[in-house]
Structure formats: C-alpha cells, structure tokens
Amino acid sequence: MLKFMLFIALLVSFTAQSAFAAVGFREMTLPDKQGRPMHVSIWYPTDNDRKPVLLGETPAFRGQPVVKDAEAGTGPHPLVLLSHGYGGSWRNLAWLASELVNKGYVVAAPDHPGTTAFDMRPPEAVFLWKRPRDLSRVIDALLSRRELTGGIASDRIAAIGHSLGGWTVIELAGSRFDAKDVVKNCVTQFGSLYCKIFKALGVGRDAASTLAMGADLSDRRIRAVVTLDLGPGRGLTPQSLASVRVPALVFGAAEDVDKETAAKADIAATNKDSAYLAQYLPSATTSYALVPGSLHFSFMQPCKPGAAALIEEEAPGESIVCKDGQGADRNAIHRQVADMIVAFLQRTLPAR
Predict the structure, then answer these.
(1) How far from each other are the two terminal CA atoms of the chain, in whole angstroms?
(2) Which GO terms describe its molecular function (predicted)?
C-alpha cells in the first residue's frame, strides 16, 4: 500500500499543478463573545506578481515565499485546515500550506487559544475540547467571507493535524475521547511522561471537563482527515474510531526518540497512537504510513544548518524539534509526506 501511495503521489505532483502564479497570505483575528478570540493564518492562490517575502523566516527556521495581502484568485477552491500541536503555532506546517496552495487549495491554520506558543495557559484554563470547534469556526468565517480566499467549495473541505493537532482533526471526524478511562489507567497504559502531559492539558481535572471531552465534536463539513504522528490517540474509544465515515490518512513517525532525549525535552513517543488509530479506524477508508527516517518533529518546518545548537543555547532540551532519524533529510521527508497528502486529497476531494 505504501509503495502504491507513493507512486500515485508522484503522478499527482506532475499533473495537478495550480493555474495560479503565486501563494498569497493574510492574517485575521476571529472575535469571540466568550473571550476566545483566535488568530488565523490563510494561504491562497493568487495571480499577483509582486515580489514575495519569506514568511516565518527566523535564525533557526526556513521561511516560505508568499505575497502578503494579495487579492485571491477566483474560486471556488477546496479548503484544508491545519491544526498545530501542543505549544505550537501556524508556522509549524507553513511548508505544507505552500505545497497545497501550489496545487490549488486554500489553507487556513488557527493558533488554538490556550495551547499555542502565543497563548499558553495553566491546566485549569485549558479547554481542550474547544480545539475541534476552533476549526469549525474557521470554516464558518471563510465560507461567509469570499473576499478572503476567492471562494471556498463547501463540499471539498479537509483537515490535517500534527501531534495534538492530529487528535483535534480526528475528533472533528467523529471520534470520541474517554478522559475518565485515560486518567484511571494512565500509568499502566501510557506511562508517567504521558500522564504529565495529560495533566498539563487539563485532562480529567473535573467532571465537567471530562464530560465535555467525551461529547460529539464532529463537523459534517469535513470530508477527509490527515494525522501527522498524532497524540493522544489511544484515549479515543475503539467504538468511535470504527464509526468514523470520512477517509483518513494516518502518518506515524518511523522511529522513536530515545528515552533520555524524550525525558529531557518532556515529550512522549506518539507513533503508538498512530498505530492504534490505524487499527481501529475502518480499514476500507484508512491508509497508514510510516515515513522512513521520520521522528515526531520531522513533520514541522525545516531547520537551518546549526539551528539545533542555536535553539539548545536559548532553550535547553528544545533542539529536539530539529532532530530527524539518523542520516535522514527533513526536506526529503517533507517531499514524501506532501506527495502522499496531495494524492490522498485528490482522491477524497475530487473536483466536481
């Protein structure tokens, strides 16, 4: 199956180019009467020929060329939502956004309030069950404001998430999380490090949050989902995963971070969660792949040479974000992942 998917992906990469000239980019803030305003980044096809700027360029990370605030090309365009991991941001999957826009998609990535690098909150203030609803809010906003994107095809919407973002999009597809069981069996089923992460996420802190996390958080407008080494997938019930009716492409990291590095960086291996997802999702509509050389953070933005040392100096333990498998090249990993995602979306979100 993996070889077949790679073949189809390569074929699509040569045949599904966008008719538009460049990648446009704009930012907006969605207001919220309940005190949850949300920053959203939007990439879209444009014919604007202004000189692009490098988006997200830092001393450690490579940016992507975009034309800021350009007029959007006429749609309707298929829409892909991106969901970042715990403590991440819209920048993490900007490389993938550019790849998708070059194939004709509009891409939108919110910074999830409470769990983004720009807004981290203590466990008692983290409302994890609102993450899927954040993506639904983005869909509402883009469907109602055509001028932002050139128009969205309401029947061609997908969601992609990395790490906790993977959990977010699979919840959006209809799965349900059993916080009560997770807390009860945390040490035996997940290990102490994962339990620490659950606590930081406010999992099981009270009866109300436990009930809210087990609710139906799905959005029927979502027609396909992609998870990138998700976590915490094993908290999703097998019954709810089996009932998911939209196609899913599940990526797991091919290699585990060693225990010493994981403990220092305060992360847990998550490829077990991806395997769990692949086991219980409907086999007829689910594809599962381990990309050679990939670690958990291989799905994030490319690092510059010397970035790991620079990050380690500023934030000890955090240089793991630049670590891939021994001898692996992150750009090559991204190429494989992008090609497989494009092939999957072409199949599951076909043009009218």
Answers:
(1) 27
(2) carboxylic ester hydrolase activity
- b/e map of 177-213 (b: 16 or more CB within 10 Å)? bbbebbbeebeeebeeebbebbebbbbbbeeebbebb
CB distance 348 to 158 below 8 Å: yes
CATH topology of domain 22-349: Rossmann fold (3.40.50)
User: Helix or strand or coil: residue 214?
Assistant: coil
Q: Both tokens of residue 248? A: 């899913």
Q: What is the mean pLDDT of the chain?
A: 89
pLDDT tier at 2, thresholds 50, 70, 90: very low
What are the tokens at 71?
């007029």
pTM of the model: 0.91
Domain ranges of the chain: 22-349
- Residues ≥6 apart with Cβ < 8 Å to 39: 27, 28, 29, 90, 110, 111, 118
DSSP bridge pairs for 66: 53
User: Which amino acid is residue 185, in one-letter code?
Assistant: N
Cα(80)–Cα(341) distance, integer angstroms: 11
Structure tokens at 6: 């790679």
What 3-state class would DSSP assign to 300? coil
Q: What is the mean pLDDT of residues 326-340?
A: 96
- Runs of H (alpha helix) within the chain: 2-15, 94-101, 131-144, 164-172, 179-184, 186-189, 192-200, 207-213, 238-242, 259-265, 271-280, 307-314, 330-348
